[in-house]
Amino acid sequence: MRADLGVSASAFGFALALQNLTWGLAQPVIGMFGDRYGPRPVLVVCASLYASGLLLMAWGGPAIGLNIGAGVLAGIGIAGCGFGVVLGAVSRSVPPEKRVQAVGVVSAVGSVATLVIAPLGQAIIDTDGWQTAALSFAVVAATIGVIALFIGGKPAPAKDHKAVALNAREAVGRAILHPGFMAMTVAFFACGFQLQFITVHLPTYLGICGVSTELGAIALGVIGIANAVGSYVTGRLGTRYRPKQLLALIYLLRTVAIIAFIWFPVTAFSTLAFAAVMGFLWLGVVPLVSGLVAKMFGLQHFNTLFGIVFLSHQIGGFAGAWLGGVTYDLTASYMTAWVSMAVVGLCAFLLQWSMDDRDHVSSGAVRDSLQGTI
Question: What residue intervals traverse the membrane (predicted)?
Answer without folding.
Answer: 42-62, 68-90, 102-124, 130-151, 172-195, 215-234, 246-266, 272-293, 305-325, 331-351
